[in-house]
From TrEMBL:
CDD domains: AAK_AKii-LysC-BS, ACT_AK-LysC-DapG-like_2, ACT_AKii-LysC-BS-like_1. Keywords: Amino-acid biosynthesis, ATP-binding, Diaminopimelate biosynthesis, Kinase, Lysine biosynthesis, Nucleotide-binding, Transferase. It comes from Nocardioides furvisabuli. Coiled coil: none annotated. It comes from the Bacteria. Pfam families: AA_kinase, ACT_9. Its EC number is 2.7.2.4. PROSITE patterns: ACT (PS51671), ASPARTOKINASE (PS00324). This is Aspartokinase. NCBIfam families: asp_kin_monofn, asp_kinases, PRK06635.1-1, PRK06635.1-2, PRK06635.1-4. Residues 272-348, 354-427 form the ACT domain.
Length: 427
């Protein structure tokens, strides 16, 4: 009997009753003869509440102390889940990330896992215990400080544990039934995907789908861990994220590989335009060097052909809204040197992305996508593509219409509403 690794999100652990329900689910797996290792998130909105509290105390809390504070959320739920399990007559041992051997780099707030040394976990399993691990946290190899993995990081804890323990599967329990063709809050007729490939899931996660932490999918792909995303509020099969869900998906369902996996959207980006850049060698390099020095991750970049009369061009790019101020300051500093005219900032934008591995071999996807946007009266601001994705920037206010029109144009709508959002405040 193998090891089963499970992850429960905050909405599955919202209160005492929810915790008892989760404990029963965990014990059922143990009863069926498996060893169980569980990664838990903080209860309900705890992480947001702790963030609010910190900001109430200090406008700029030190990153080290922020991690100390936030990791407390997962520590609360791990102990409570272990207590609820012991109440059912089974023994559980809870461990912090550091105790569980989750070793990270030293970047507070968005640390990367570099190794997992699960000695205490395997020992506890050997003694017959169920193991509960606090998600979203680790300890830095060089500074020995406590770190966090970034919002939603418990998914990554779970998959990293599954890889280290050579588990057959990692089950991610959440408050929806799986990965949908679009966010059910915007498209009520979104359909649940039976399977999706790692590469499609990576694009979905990078384009705004919040169902899985991006790094958890990267980890799953690197170590070949199938990830089963499902609801803790139902017994339904969820979505299998694996290398080739069309061919080696679980037996019960035949999954024909659709051309399009889904439509994702993201309203967390802003757009900056550098107006009137002299069209000569080295100007773009200088601009992007300044942004790189400010540690800013860019997404889309567009440079226009310069106007013949003036030899001036405009460069636009998108970036996380949270980095908007830093980027504007960094660019203002090099205005004289670059000799551009002015900067424009727009954070009323949204990104809509169409994702599917079948795009590679099917012509006409782009024209259908843009045609759907046109019929919905949505204007396209910027375009970028990868092999299996087309993204457009539109006005923030037209994101909903754009997503719905695209979803319908590609025949993704379900006949009846399938998507149930069981918990969570969506906060
Ligand atoms: N509690 C953390 C968060 O809210 C980590 C997680 O839930 O995965 O982001
Ligand atoms: Mg999550």
């Amino acid at each position: 009997m193998g090891i089963v690794v499970q992850k429960y999100g905050g909405s599955s652990l919202a209160d005492a009753d929810a915790i008892k329900r989760v404990a029963r689910r965990i014990v059922d797996v143990k009863k069926s003869g498996h060893d169980v290792v569980v990664a838990v998130s903080a209860m309900g909105d705890t992480t947001d509440d702790l963030l609010d509290l910190a900001n109430g105390v200090s406008p700029l809390p030190p990153a080290r102390e922020m991690d100390m504070l936030l990791t407390a959320g997962e520590r609360i739920s791990m102990a409570l889940v272990a207590m609820a399990i012991s109440d059912l007559g089974y023994t559980a041992r809870s461990f912090t990330g550091s105790q569980a051997g989750v070793i990270t780099d030293s970047v507070h707030g968005k640390a990367k896992i570099i190794d997992v040394t699960p000695g205490r976990i395997t020992q506890a399993i050997g003694e017959g215990h169920i193991v509960i691990v606090a998600g979203f946290q680790g300890v830095s190899a060089d500074t020995k400080e406590i770190t966090t993995l970034g919002r939603g990081g418990t998914d990554t804890t779970a998959v990293a544990l599954a890889a280290a323990l050579e588990a057959d599967v990692c089950e991610i329990y959440t408050d929806v039934d799986g990965v949908f063709t679009a966010d059910p809050r915007i498209v009520p007729t979104a359909r649940k995907l039976a399977g999706v490939s790692y590469e499609e899931m990576l694009e979905l996660a990078a384009c705004g789908s919040k169902i899985l932490h991006l790094r958890c999918v990267e980890y799953g792909r690197r170590y070949g861990i199938p990830i089963h995303v499902r609801s803790s509020f139902s017994q339904l099969q969820g979505t299998w994220v694996m290398s080739d869900p069309g061919l080696d998906g679980p037996e019960e369902e035949t999954m024909e590989q659709p051309i399009i996996a889904g439509v994702a959207h993201d309203v967390s980006e802003a757009k900056i335009t550098v107006v009137g850049v002299p069209d000569k060698v080295g100007e773009a390099a200088r601009i992007f060097e300044a942004l790189a020095d400010a540690q800013i991750n860019l997404d889309m970049i567009v440079q226009n052909i310069s106007a013949a009369a003036t030899s001036l061009t405009d460069i636009s790019f998108t970036l996380p809204r949270t980095d908007g101020q830093t980027a504007m300051t960094a660019l203002a500093r090099i205005q004289a040197e670059v000799g551009y005219d002015k900067l424009l900032y727009d954070d009323k934008i949204g990104k809509v992305s169409l994702i599917g591995a079948g795009m590679r071999s099917h012509p006409g996807i782009t024209s259908k996508f843009f045609g759907a946007l046109a019929s919905a009266g949505v204007n396209i601001g910027m375009i970028s593509t990868s092999e299996i994705r087309i993204s457009v920037i539109v006005d923030e206010s037209s994101v909903g219409d754009a997503v719905r029109a695209t979803h319908t144009a590609f025949d993704l709508d379900a006949d009846e509403v399938e998507a149930v959002v069981y918990g969570g405040t969506g906060r």
